[in-house]
């Protein structure tokens, strides 16, 4: 990456982080205002996504596929209403905050000439990495006893029985391409989304060439952002 491209990347990263910080959408105790989370994402979309038709289609897709209301899981991180968009925003901001260190280190490696990334790449990969979870869960109820020993119905999330999924990361890639088909040529982004779960979401056949995907610094960046969002932010 030449110096001009690197400076453009760093400027856009700083601008995206500034948008997040100005909105301050998620507190350290995980409190959030959904409208603030949504406005943060939308402002970031408008700033960084170059193709405005695809930007509009992406925002429409999120509105129409329960992205803003879905949980991020049934039992683990983000297992609450709107947990998916909160988790996705934390992953996105973590990726942006880690990005400069990853780029600087990667630029010193023998692989430096083989891969580049843009701020748009980072943002889109972070935003869409869990698109497969949008609209995937239903609310059901189980009987439990309260502290007084009375039976009450407690709501919980359960994966829809009619859900069809081609694999956690791969399904999210397909859903991204519904609204942003130009990304079919952005192989580095598709790899980052497809492989963001690391070893936990690949078949034995995929395991054979998994190390090749790790040559792509965006794969490692999104993995790190996703794991830190779940382990450090619990969402």
Number of distinct helices: 10
Strand order of the largest sheet: 1-2
Q: H/E element string?
A: HHHHHEEHHHHH
Q: What integer is the average pLDDT?
A: 87
Distance between the termini: 33 Å
- Main beta-sheet strand count, sense and barrel state: 2 strands, antiparallel
Rg over alpha carbons: 18 Å
What would you call the structural class?
mainly alpha
Total E-strand runs = 2
Instruction: Give the amount of beta strand, in percent.
Output: 5-15%
* Percent range of helical residues: 40-55%
Shape by Cα distribution: globular
Question: pLDDT under 50 segments (min length 5)?
Answer: none
> Looking at the chains present, what oligomeric state does this protein adopt?
single chain
